[in-house]
């Protein structure tokens, strides 16, 4: 930081950085100027002037020194304004100090508890149909990656299923890892044919269950209940439950018992289209209803993207914003300048200049 006596403090760039706590004090500076102007106007005829016989010197030296003598007379005459100008500067700087020039640096801190999201994606052979270009699975992967990239402070996990279900990625805030897993999905990951929706839900629920509370945790039970994270499962499939050991409706009731909300998305167009597999929406609607969630149908890529955007709007954890302000005051600098100016005015008034330049 520059020393107080540096002229840097009067540069326009420095003044643009200032925030004035009491800007009304600055508006008094023009009023002070008007008072000085009024005083000069009322006392202009009563001013005392020192007449110096510089003309005699000019005559003796010749006409060539006449211009120099007149300039000297003009300079001496103008010096009588030095004292009131110095007082005006001192008072103005006092008002600047009273306005409290500050530099305020603001820091914003966003805090969110976040939510837990398990995404279950069907990778059975029917997901290779092309009614969603390039395929149902490829479209689901791209849109799911966009959804993951838009989350903040949320933990996201991934389950894949066909005739069996596997937990591919546990709940994590490493969104790049989740997106990498999504990009690696393909129809050859699970060789067992079929669609095990119930098993997929069970894998998701197992990942999201609260850990059992032990005796050592008893003192923290109340605090944990007050900070319980919201939990949701997003299941993407294009068929009925044809495999697995657990009935989907039973799994949905189990999710409801754990306060887990279910969103189901039917990927593909309903009804037979050439060799394309049909989309059975019945079980997906049922488990979404049981799980206090919603059912969506995605018949094209744009609709699938809109579904994820709607879920994104529905499932947002509240964000607490804290604003910190670092305030630095600089009024002492202008107060020091004001004292210097007023002491200079006092010096001019109480020395020989006060008699010569008295107004």
Topology:
Elements: H1 12-17, E1 19-20, H2 28-43, H3 54-61, H4 66-78, H5 82-98, E2 101-112, E3 115-122, H6 136-149, E4 155-161, E5 165-172, H7 175-183, H8 197-208, H9 221-226, E6 230-237, H10 248-257, E7 260-267, H11 282-290, E8 294-298, H12 301-314, E9 319-329, H13 331-349, H14 352-356
Parallel strand pairs: 3-4, 3-6, 6-7, 7-8
Antiparallel strand pairs: 1-2, 2-9, 4-5
Characterize the structure shown.
- Helix content is about 45%, strand content about 20%.
- With about 350 residues, the chain is an alpha/beta fold.
- It has two domains: about 5-105 and about 330-355, no CATH class; about 115-210 and about 220-315, von Willebrand factor, type A domain (Rossmann fold, 3-Layer(aba) Sandwich), CATH 3.40.50.
- It has a six-stranded mixed sheet with strand order 5-4-3-6-7-8, sandwiched between helices.
- Strand 3, helix 6 (about 135-150) and strand 4 form a beta-alpha-beta unit.
- The longest helix is centred in the last third of the chain and has 19 residues, at about 330-350.
- It holds the Pfam family VWA.
- InterPro entries: UPF0353/GerABKA_families, VWF_A, vWFA_dom_sf.
- Keywords: Cell membrane, Membrane, Transmembrane, Transmembrane helix.
């Amino acid at each position: 930081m520059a020393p107080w006596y540096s002229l840097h403090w009067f540069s326009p760039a420095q003044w643009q950085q200032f925030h004035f706590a009491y800007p009304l004090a600055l508006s008094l500076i023009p009023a002070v100027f008007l008072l000085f102007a009024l005083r000069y106007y009322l006392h202009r005829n009563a001013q005392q002037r020192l007449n110096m016989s510089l003309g005699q010197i000019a005559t003796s030296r010749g006409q060539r020194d006449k211009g120099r003598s007149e300039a000297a007379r003009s300079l001496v005459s103008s010096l009588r304004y030095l004292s009131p100008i110095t007082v005006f500067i001192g008072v103005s700087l006092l008002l600047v100090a009273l306005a409290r020039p500050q530099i305020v640096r603001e820091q914003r801190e966003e805090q969110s508890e976040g939510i837990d999201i398990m995404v279950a994606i069907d990778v059975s052979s029917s997901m290779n149909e092309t009614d969603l270009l390039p395929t149902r699975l490829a479209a689901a992967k791209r849109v799911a990656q966009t959804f993951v990239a838009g989350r903040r402070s949320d933990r996201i996990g991934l389950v894949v299923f066909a005739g069996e279900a596997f937990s591919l990625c546990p709940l994590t805030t490493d969104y790049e890892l989740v997106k990498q897993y999504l990009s690696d999905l393909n129809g050859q990951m699970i060789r067992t044919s079929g669609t095990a929706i119930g098993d997929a839900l069970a894998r998701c629920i197992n990942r999201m269950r609260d850990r059992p509370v032990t005796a050592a945790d008893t003192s923290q039970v109340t605090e944990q209940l007050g900070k319980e994270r919201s939990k949701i499962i997003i299941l993407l499939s294009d068929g009925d439950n044809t495999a697995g050991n657990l009935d989907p409706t039973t799994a949905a009731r189990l999710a409801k018992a754990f306060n887990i909300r279910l969103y189901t998305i039917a990927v593909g167009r309903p009804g037979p289209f050439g060799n394309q597999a049909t989309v059975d929406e019945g079980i997906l609607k049922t488990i979404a209803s049981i799980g206090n969630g919603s059912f969506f149908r995605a018949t094209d890529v744009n609709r699938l993207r809109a579904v994820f955007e709607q879920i994104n709007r529905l499932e947002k954890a509240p964000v607490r914003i804290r604003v910190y302000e670092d305030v630095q005051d600089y009024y002492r600098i202008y107060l020091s300048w004001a004292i210097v100016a007023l002491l200079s005015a006092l010096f001019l008034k109480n020395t020989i200049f006060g008699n010569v330049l008295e107004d």
